[in-house]
């Protein structure tokens, strides 16, 4: 990587005694040469700022994944790296998976689903500022990093961990607010056509093991994005026992009778 924490910078210098420099001495020398910049990532709330040593050609993607150990790019950031959006990213998203938790034994009910999706989606407050960009850390559901791959950042940079095309689409349909909203999610599905494996989409959903019937949202997007009916039929075979919602907090949504999914009238 071209971005270092204070600790990882010190570890790098200790691994190379032949350089004949202390970590602070080498840092100062590279700063003077304009090769390295020390930046402070400021929290939007009350979290402590984070200091990073950034080499001159490092991208915001690299800075984002340096936020925490085992962080990987996701949602709108992954969509940008995979060419699944026409938007220029201003907010960068990374996922740090939670530890495994016991799955709730309580079953679904229509009233429970209605109640859960009436309000807005909860948004992460773990947000840091880098220049004109925001970096948002999400605490994702544990999946043992299912669908996380290494991908090169723009301009021939190093490989960074990022969700695959299929995992990105699933993440977007589950939390559309982190991808620009449901209209942008539909754009992502359209741009992914011809590159996506339906089997892997289903595998991602199973690996993430959500309580809610997100396969209904998946079928809705695949159909609206114009995927081959042979592929859509695989999702159509799955049970649809409840009316579901494409997003949280929608105003006056319309019910798609086929997929039993409420969606905005404009979609």
Kindly summarize this structure in a few lines.
This protein has helices at 6-14, 23-32, 60-65, 75-81, 110-118, 165-174, 182-192, 198-208, 214-224, 229-236; strands at residues 3-4, 36-43, 50-55, 72-73, 91-95, 127-130, 133-138, 148-152, 159-163, 244-245, 254-256, 261-263. It has 267 residues and is of the alpha+beta class.
Could you list some keywords that capture this structure?
34% helix; 267 residues; seven-stranded mixed beta sheet; three-stranded mixed beta sheet; alpha+beta
Structural description of this entry:
The chain has 267 residues and is of the alpha+beta class. It has helices at 6-14, 23-32, 60-65, 75-81, 110-118, 165-174, 182-192, 198-208, 214-224, 229-236, and strands spanning 3-4, 36-43, 50-55, 72-73, 91-95, 127-130, 133-138, 148-152, 159-163, 244-245, 254-256, 261-263. The chain has a seven-stranded mixed β-sheet with strand order 1-3-2-6-7-5-4. α6 packs antiparallel against α7 and α9 runs antiparallel to α10. The longest helix is centred in the C-terminal third of the chain and has 11 residues, at 182-192. It is elongated, with a radius of gyration of 21 Å. The model has no long low-confidence stretch (mean pLDDT 94).
